[in-house]
Amino acid sequence: MSENSTGSATAVIEDPSAEPMIKVEALRRSFGEGEAAVHALKGVSFEIPRGELVALRGRSGSGKTTLLNLVGGLDSADGGRIVIDGTDLSTLGEEGLLELRRDRIGFIFQSFGLLPILSAAENVGVPLRLRKADPKEREDRVGLLLALVGLADHANQRPGELSGGQQQRVAIARALANKPALLIADEPTGQLDAETGLAVMELLRAVVRSEGCTALVATHDHQLLGLADRVLELRDGEIVEED
């Protein structure tokens, strides 16, 4: 607080853009009980500034998916704190978490997660329909996103008529539908060949720049790590930052 010329107190409002997009403090998550318990995360702490593409690496079973689920509000921690875009997740109930995932976080999964009976354009438009966006707004946004991921000519094709790389591009476009501040991707290139996987990762990097969002991407592919602004490694339940 500060005082103005009349002596009354005024609040000093900090620039929210100066705050990190992701702030994780002493995060803990275990599965099971007693001696059989698996301690996936042991006091994990890190920050990710806005506008960065950060890769999360670690051996299979290291807890990468667990960490992504916690950051994305899909799971609850045993202890610690997660702040996403200025919001402490522990202060949100189920409805608040649902709104956060719908409006401010985009998810990209290894299995694509597309609805097989819908066209590429219809799949991309699903989040906008859930938000009850104006039909014209929805149509314009879907067209823009399909062009962004290089699939404007495939709008009417269903997932089964697209290659794996094309399906993942549709999934990326769908994740961007509601203009999320944060993209979370769990092994998005895991089902793709090396060349296609590299193209998808390059697309993610371009999307982060053009859409002005932040991305946290779990990957074990060493070739893809070089495209990230920063690499975090999960090792023995703790985060180690790499050069």
TrEMBL record:
CDD domains: ABC_MJ0796_LolCDE_FtsE (cd03255)
Keyword ATP-binding: yes
Record key words, sorted: ATP-binding, Nucleotide-binding, Transport
The organism's taxonomic lineage, starting at the top: Bacteria, Bacillati, Actinomycetota, Actinomycetes, Kitasatosporales
Matches recorded under Pfam families: ABC_tran
Name this polypeptide is given: ABC transporter ATP-binding protein
Gene Ontology molecular functions: ATP binding; ATP hydrolysis activity; transmembrane transporter activity
Example of a GO cellular component annotation carried by this entry: plasma membrane
Residue stretches making up the ABC transporter domain: 22-243
Gene3D superfamilies found in the cross-reference section: P-loop containing nucleotide triphosphate hydrolases
Superkingdom in the source lineage: Bacteria
InterPro entries: AAA+_ATPase, ABC_transporter-like_ATP-bd, ABC_transporter-like_CS, ABC_transpr_LolD-like, MacB-like_ATP-bd, P-loop_NTPase
